[in-house]
Amino acid sequence: MTSILVTGANGFVGRAVCAALIHKGHTVRAALRNPARFAIAGCEVAKVPSIEADADWSEALHGITTVIHLVARVHVMQDENSNPLEAFRSVNTAGAEHLARAAAASGVKRLVYVSTIKVNGESTSRGNKFRELDVPAPQDSYGVSKCEAELALWRVAQETGLEVVIVRPSLVYGAGVKGNFIQMLNVLAKRIPLPLASVCNQRSLVYVENLSDALIACSTHPAAAGQIYLVSDGEDVSTPGLLRQLGDAIGCPARLFPCPSALLKWAGALTGRSAQVDRLMDSLQVDSGKIRRELNWTPPYSLQQGLQATAEWYRDTHL
Asked: What is the CA angle 296-298-303, rounded to 5?
C-alpha cells in the first residue's frame, strides 16, 4: 500500500478522505496547522505552520509516496479582503506550486490536486455538460487562482517528473457540509416557503464519500497520471427536486411556490444576492464519463443514498 499525505485533512472532505484511505489499508499522514483539533484513529499527524509559498514541508513529506492536496483558501460570498485575487493566489496557486516542488524534491511520485468545477465556469446551457477538454473559463478570483494552480502544477510535472492528477469536483455534499448546502437545509427545517417551484434546471452533485473514493482511485491507478477528471454522482437533479428530496428526508417537506424567473433575478439584483439566485436557477452539469472509462471507477453510492445520509446527519446534529 502507498503512504499518502493529505493536506486539509481536518476539513469536510479531508476527514472523509483520511477515513476512506485508512479503511482501504493505506498509511495516511494528515498535514495540519492545528493537530490538537484532529482525531482519526490510525492516522499519523504532521504539523505544518503555513500553507503558503514559504511552508516547510520537509517533515510532512518524509517517506511519502503520494500527496492528496485539499487545503485551499475557499470561495466566500462576501470577501472583505482588499485584494481577493492575490489572497487566493497566495494559498491556492503559489502554495500549491511550492508544495509540488517540495514533494518532487522529497521523492514523492504523485500529487493529486483537488481543484474546482469553477475552472470550467459557473453554469452550463440546458442539455450541455462540462468536460475535461473545455477551454477554462473561471469567473471569480477563487476559480482563477485554482486554474492558475493547475497550470503551475503542469509546469512542475514537466520539469521534475512528478505525476500530477487534477480533480474538479462538482458541488460536494455529505455529513458535515457547510456553505450553500447547509443553508438550504436550514431553510427547509424552518419551513420557509420558497419561490422556486418553476425553476427548470439541472445540477450535478458529488457525495463526499463518492469523491473520496474517486480521489483514492486517482492516487493509485497507473492510468491517472497526467490526467484531469471531472467528478460527480452521475445523477443530475433540479433545484426543486433537490429541495423536495432533502425536505422529505429531514421530515420537513419543501414548501415551494411558482415565481417568474425574471422576478427572481430582479430580486437577487436588488438584494445583492444575484450570485446566490443564479446558483439556484442556472444549470451546472458535469460529464464524469472520463474517470469511469479510464479508471473503471463507479460511485459507491447513489444520489439518493448520499442525500439520505446527509439528511440523517442533519437530523442528528441540527434538529
From this structure: 165
Q: Are 152 and 207 in contact (CB under 8 A)?
A: no
CA atoms of 113 and 221, how far apart (whole Å) = 15
Q: 48 — phi, psi (to 5°)?
A: -125, 110
List the grid coordinates of 58.
520537509
Q: Reply yes or no on whether 142 is catalytic.
A: yes
Cβ contacts of residue 12 below 8 Å, gap of 6+? Answer: 172, 174, 176, 177, 178, 208
How far is the C-alpha of 19 from the C-alpha of 159, rounded, in Å? 33
* Residue 164 and residue 226 in contact, taking contact as beta carbons nearer than 8 Å: yes
Q: To the nearest whole percent, how much of the chain has pLDDT over 70?
A: 97
Looking at this protein, which amino acid is placed at residue 255?
R
Residue the block writes with cell 452539469: 285
Bridge partners for 240 per DSSP: none
Q: What is the pLDDT of residues 170-213, one digit of tens each?
A: 999 999 999 889 999 999 999 999 999 999 999 999 999 999 99
Cα separation, 168 vs 173, in Å, equals 14
**CB proximity list for 254: less than 8 A, separation 6 or greater:** 188, 194, 240, 243, 244, 246, 247, 248
CA distance 13 to 240: 26
- The full length of the chain comes to 319
The distance between the two most distant Cα atoms of the chain, rounded to a whole number of Å, is: 58
pLDDT in tens, 153-179: 999 999 999 999 999 999 999 999 998
Tell me: pLDDT of 79 over 60. no
Q: Among 38-42, 160-164, 294-298, whose mean pLDDT is lowest? A: 38-42
Q: Which sign does the torsion angle of CA 274, 275, 280, 284 carry? A: positive
Enter the pTM of the model: 0.95
Number of Cβ within 10 Å of residue 263's Cβ equals: 10
Question: What are the grid coordinates assigned to 319, written together?
Answer: 434538529
Task: Report pLDDT for 166.
Answer: 98
Check 142, 207, 301, 314 and give the catalytic one: 142
